[in-house]
Amino acid sequence: MDTLQGGQFGLVLQQAKAPLIVPLLKFLVVVCLGMSVMLFVEKVYMGIIIIFIKLFRRRPVKHWKWEAINDDVELGNSAYPMVLVQIPMYNEREVYQLSIGAACGLSWPSDRIIIQVLDDSTDPTIKDLVERECQRWASKGINIKYEIRDNRNGYKAGALKEGMKHSYVKQCDYVAIFDADFQPEPDFLYRTIPFLVHNSDIALVQARWKFVNSDECLMTRMQEMSLDYHFTVEQEVGSSTYAFFGFNGTAGVWRIAALNEAGGWKDRTTVEDMDLAVRASLRGWKFVYLSDLKVKNELPSTFKAYRYQQHRWSCGPANLFRKMVMGIVRNKKVSPLKKFHVIYSFFFVRKIVAHIVTFVFYCVILPATVLVPEVQVPIWGAVYIPSTITLLNAVGTPRSLHLLIFWILFENVMSLHRTKATFIGLFEAGRVNEWVVTEKLGDALKTKLGAKAPRKPRLRIGERLHMLELIVGFYLFFCGCYDLAFGKNGYFIYLFIQSVAFFIAGVGYVGTFVPNS
């Protein structure tokens, strides 16, 4: 009976193949090839621009007016603008001292700077630790304010918005923002504020991130490669061509007047930083990116923390695109070319197409063509374009060139979550506004390992198994076996290796394991 049913199912599948499956798969291949070409053109365009920038040494200090702020005998410290430094945090036991200490160590006249710690912590012990740290710095003469609220409405955006309402903020001209794991160098304000002081049309000065734990594990090295490309190429190109790029949410200084004119902080998406940047840009404000100014920070080193972060970073932009696209189209203050750049390049290609094509094409459609040999993918789409895109991505981190294969496999695995998050954002599904603060370990891992904690934590099946990765892994493995037995494309080599990557992620054997206390 089972044999008969299996044969009937096979017969139905075979009959549906020619009129339905083959045309549908051919259509999807064409769509994916189109998206691949869009991404390829975008990457090549940015590559050409970055070469031009490097060859002609187009540095911000040459393009914009910049003069050091010096002491004035007559004016005294009033020659320096008032600066607010905001540090939003939430249960940051491991890193709160680092960020507060670095902010209090900024070189700037003490009567012209206010440090504002916005503590949304729900753990009373951590709140007490943070408050005492603020009191310790206040006793040293630092103008530091410890601010709390009775709810977490709006998460980070809500905290920043609430922080701007305090009366003492009215005397400030600029606001620097640092997340809880960021440690700016003492000269940070001296290098950024002059751009804002001497150029009235600049709203934001953004610094680059420098990762203190990039060598912690293979996963942090993979993250470094992706983020280095973002900072080395994407931010640099945006700053040099359209004076626009996405605010990274930290390690930047805003002109408070521009921030207010743009409508202030909004919590309608999980990317409040990008939301503010787009709104300010549509008001005509310009941004400057300083690639040579680096601020130390920490990469998420556990797979769980990284998955949550990538969900937020992928879902938020897609949801913001949905909310803002028509407003951008109707905007009258910026040129059609800039509107095209924001809608097509910044949002559609980089935030939507890049995620979807990586997973759908290379992890779903391409393997499916093995099972349906009537559908062929041209070699330029299967090999040449992805190879070129991969090599262009590698320019940001030359030291990791030997890890390129691992990076490709890891990015394909993560594209599963990014694609899912992108669709959640586009269609405003259930987890669209989910905000999970990225866990920072600071020195916690070293401390626990130093205390001779067990090398392997107790296995918790529910926490370690990720069913989506396992399902995709089995699908790729099956396609690989079929290709090895019946195919002619030789895709099985890629399919087997990629399936192993999904299996490794599926059993949670990625990133750093934090031993139990």
From TrEMBL:
Pfam families xrefs: Glyco_trans_2_3
GO biological process, one term: cell wall organization
Gene Ontology CC terms, in alphabetical order: Golgi membrane
Chief location of this protein within or outside the cell: Golgi
Keyword Glycosyltransferase included in the entry's annotation: yes
Membrane topology reported for the UniProt record: Multi-pass membrane protein
Entry keywords, A to Z: Cell wall biogenesis/degradation, Glycosyltransferase, Golgi apparatus, Membrane, Transferase, Transmembrane, Transmembrane helix
Keyword flag DNA-binding: no
CDD domains linked: CESA_CaSu_A2
Domain (Glycosyltransferase 2-like) ranges: 174-368
Gene Ontology MF terms: glucomannan 4-beta-mannosyltransferase activity; mannan synthase activity
EC number(s) on file: 2.4.1.32
InterPro entries xrefs: Glyco_trans_2-like, Nucleotide-diphossugar_trans
Catalytic activity: GDP-mannose + (glucomannan)n = GDP + (glucomannan)n+1
Ranges that cross the membrane: 27-53, 352-372, 384-410, 465-485, 491-514
Subcellular locations according to the entry: Golgi apparatus membrane
Family the UniProt entry places it in: Belongs to the glycosyltransferase 2 family. Plant cellulose synthase-like A subfamily.
Protein name: glucomannan 4-beta-mannosyltransferase
Annotated organism of origin: Prunus avium
